[in-house]
Predict the 3D structure of the following.
Amino acid sequence: MSSAPDIAQLAQGVAAGERRALARAITLVESARTDHRDAATALLDRLGTGKQALRVGLSGTPGVGKSTFIEALGLYRTGQGKRVAVLAVDPSSARSGGSILGDKTRMERLSRDPAAFIRPSPAQTQLGGVARRTREAIALCEAAAFDVVLIETVGVGQSETMVAEMSDVFLLLLAPAGGDELQGVKRGIMEIADIILVNKADGDLKAQATRTVADYAGALRLLRKRARDPDGFPRALPISALEAAGLEAAWDFVTQLVTWRRETGVWDTTRAAQTRHWFGQELRAEMMGLLTRDPTLHARLQSLENDVVTGKLSPAAAAAAALAPLTAPKTTPK
């Protein structure tokens, strides 16, 4: 996207649910160019608040079959007349900064479904398992009237919990395991998971998957019950993405949880908290961007960084000095 597009025309295409327009819009919001950032802000403002799609975050251990599961779940929902968007965050190439894995090649059947939209985005330097502009991409998918937005993170880790700040339900996909393997799953991500799905419950692994579900169910009972959970949640259950087995039961539990949260006000409270968190994240990112974009401030930042490296200043003192031009009181001419 070499130049800023016609915002009115692009907004019209997104609102009409055109997949090509949505892809162009996401490319625009992911761009770091100043003129593109201005255009992206104008586009999001023009589109306003779209329908409230169900945002489902998904993470899982490497090789657990996330893409197979997402494709199976996506086809299950589109088969029920729903429109499904998939925002998949891939590891980034160290050379190009682009996506390494490319989810469209791993979800071939879903990518051909006219009721589905798949967008792989590189994680780049962003931590938390999501891309820098995933929230804006979600907003665009909602403006395009998708019913479900699936947000796939890079993989399980201590920083993957950021996806919980932008989803309504968080699914954790795990493989049949036990003993040390079970202990390897981080407690932090276990605490935010709403539903744990033990995949590959088929063939020779079916019995082991059933045992793993029981192990995780026991572990979940040891965790303190959360106020935003009804009885029976969080919970664990077996599925087979390969055989599309257990998908209906898994989605039924998602529906039960969402219904309870809507009826009790947890949904609205959580959405409001997520919006506040988003604002804070954007504010911090824009402040850092201001410090690096302005030539004078950037040179000052580099000088202070050298002072920290050489031991002339402590990191705290240097940070305060870096922000001084932004916090200094303005004087009015007499």
Remarks:
- The longest strand covers residues 54-60.
